[in-house]
Known about the structure:
By secondary structure, the chain is α+β, with helices and mostly antiparallel strands. About 35% of the residues lie in helices and about 30% in strands.
Amino acid sequence: MRTTVGIIGAGPAGLLLARLLHNAGIDAVVLESRDRSYVERRQRAGILEQGTADVLREAGAGERMDREGLRHDGIELRFDRRRHRVDFPALTGGRSVTVYAQTEVCKDLIALQLQGGGPLLFEAEALAVEDAGTDTPRIRFRHQGREDVLECAYVVGCDGFWGVARKAIPAGLSHVFERTYPFGWLGILADVPPSHDELVYARHDRGFALLSMRSPSVSRLYLQVPDGTDAGTWSDKEIWDELERRFETDDDWRLERGPITQKSVTPMRSYVHEPMRHGRLFLAGDAAHIVPPTGAKGLNLAVGDVVTFARALTHQQETGSPELLDAYSATCLRRVWQAERFSYDMTALLHRAPAATAFEDRLQLARLERIASSRAAETDLAEAYTGFPFG
């Protein structure tokens, strides 16, 4: 097989890249190790920045998102039994975010790709990227019980942290920056309408909590728990009781309870691999960087990467200049590090470290007070949350 761009991974990044390239008249093949059903039910991020939502619309994948997604014009911060709303449009010149699950983004993009895009091969396991430093990279893969080779002009690895793409970058060229956190998130899906119409981020002496949603009838909630926690050790009642404690306020707000349909624990880490390019191989999304979920940046960073690549390749096709492709890694990393900084700041602001002192507790409250009382501090949070510009 031969194509211009070989894309490893049919998550939202790989699928969106295929759509952007198709719209630009550039052929691509997508290889996905899992089957279609798995990809379309894989639970991940659910917050789309303004820029991400705009790109999906421009790519022709925004119709159902605009019909079923939930536009949010702010978030609520809770601390010391108080509530403070951050008004995004008022602070950012009109920007907002959209609650629309990654599973739904994938369903929309898969449907478009199968209707009129290039080849999308499910259960096609990428085994290795070969000759990445040459002008003729290859992806060796297994599909339908036999090995094959996809010859490409470019390879984009959207295959996540455990994929093969990053392994093709020589160890001597790789620089890794990472941080692990001594806590994780116990997340639940519950068949109950959300208890608030916007996301609620709660800082409590017992730990962080987040109230989110997947739809008007399905709630998504999280609790900070020690690293290594087994979700099965928490009963439904214990989870609801703890959520109620951490969301408590001095007014009459109440947390609505319902049947819990899913429990899982998400570990927390920050990770960046530099560079994000080697020869004709380009990394995107979790293959190059991971952020703690507090800032809602993971999916949006991946979108920024593939938008940058698609624009750069289109520029080269139209002008013959490789300038933007050559700048891919540096362009993406500027945005990546701002998102890493914001995600780290939000994590440190809202989570209680296991060995936190009374001094550190007071500093957290002072920072939250500053956001609640200073338009400048509040604007900085709102601008970062609604999204950094694509490079």
